[in-house]
Structure formats: C-alpha cells, structure tokens
C-alpha cells in the first residue's frame, strides 16, 4: 500500500500561508511512548558530564560544542532543561521512528523535495513558568507537539510572511580565536519588518499534531504561564540537491569519502 502525502488542497494551503497543521498524525499510544522516552532522557543523565549552554533566537553568541544539549537553572533538572539535541534522529530509536518513515517521506515529496536531508532534531521543552518567550524568527522546522495553548506558549504565525520576509541574517560558526557561533548580516538584503501583534494567528494545535513550517515564515511563541511542561519534537530538513555552506553553525563529521553525512529522508 502506497503511503499518501499531502493532498492538493493541503499543498496549496502550505504554499499560501507558509505553515500547515495536520492533527492526529500521532496516536495517543504513540504520544505516550514519546512522552515516556522524553521523561527518560530528561532524568537519565548527569549534569556534571555536560556543558551547559543557552538556546536563544536573539543575536547573541551561542557557545558550546557541536551539539549543545541543555540549559539549566536552580530547580530540578527535569523542569529546567530547555532543549535536548541536536541529533536525536540518529541517536534515539524511538525518535528516529517518528522522523525517518514513509509518511514523512511522502509529505516531503508532495512539497517538491528532491533529496531531503535531516539536518538536526531535538526536543524543545517549554518548562512551567520559565519557558520564556521566543521572539519572531524564521527557520525550517517540522514539529510534533503536545496540546499547545495560549497559556503554555503555543506557536503563532504570520501567514504568508514567507513570501515577503527576506532572510537577512545567518547564524554561523565564528571561527578563528572565537568560540561557538554568532550572527552575521547579509549585505544588500533588506531585513523584514517586525509584524504587528494582530498579524499573528494561533491555530488550534491538539496533541499529536504535525506542524509544517516554511523556513522563511515569521513565527514566535510566548511564555509558558502554566504549571505543566509543554514538549515539542522538531526536526529540520534541507534540500540535498543544493550545496551546504561550510559557514553553517551546525556541521557533522564527513563520510569516509569526504561527503556530507546528513541523514537522507528518502530510503
């Protein structure tokens, strides 16, 4: 039986708005398995063995190793971790199964990908009360989310902004005597204007929803004001038919032949 991708109406909606929500992609049983695996990952490690880094979409240096894993504060680590990443699709069997599969391949194919490569994958933890606001930004994201509401910091989007919001900066490896990463401004590119609050929309996002987001779409999330963690599993895809810039902040060890070593979504 051939696995179906997006139908023509869904493809048209994604191209128009720059995002698409697909409720019911994960069953309750599958969601429970992923929540259990997330709880295990959050508890089964020693803080003493890990560098502590801070994730931010702001233009600040992002210091850490190739796969910066955590951000912690003075509270139990299970309620303090900001992110687990960035190669879960290669390192964790449960999460790989929800990344490299026929359904995701069919969706990518219906969106016109020739050779989609999984660049990175991570669990984003919007923790109670400290899960802060993420300002308007752009990236290429596929998200599996739990119940997302205005109270716990759900995503909101500026529909259609992928058509007019130029990508005017890049996050790169600093190199030289500097550690970590930083942002550069692209010459000759007009930065996008900051959207007004009434331009953002927050569609319903029940547990098990697959969220597709165009890389140039402006989106954000607010502070988690609830008493419950809000988890999202996300992975980024790039088109393998194009060159991957060596200045990109995230690099993986090359293959023995010297090529790129990202994971192919298509078998």
UniProtKB/TrEMBL annotation:
<protein>
    <recommendedName>
        <fullName>Phytanoyl-CoA dioxygenase</fullName>
    </recommendedName>
</protein>
<keyword id="KW-0408">Iron</keyword>
<comment type="similarity">
    <text>Belongs to the PhyH family.</text>
</comment>
<dbReference type="Pfam" id="PF05721">
    <property type="entry name" value="PhyH"/>
</dbReference>
<dbReference type="GO" id="GO:0046872">
    <property type="term" value="F:metal ion binding"/>
</dbReference>
<dbReference type="InterPro" id="IPR008775">
    <property type="entry name" value="Phytyl_CoA_dOase-like"/>
</dbReference>
<keyword id="KW-0479">Metal-binding</keyword>
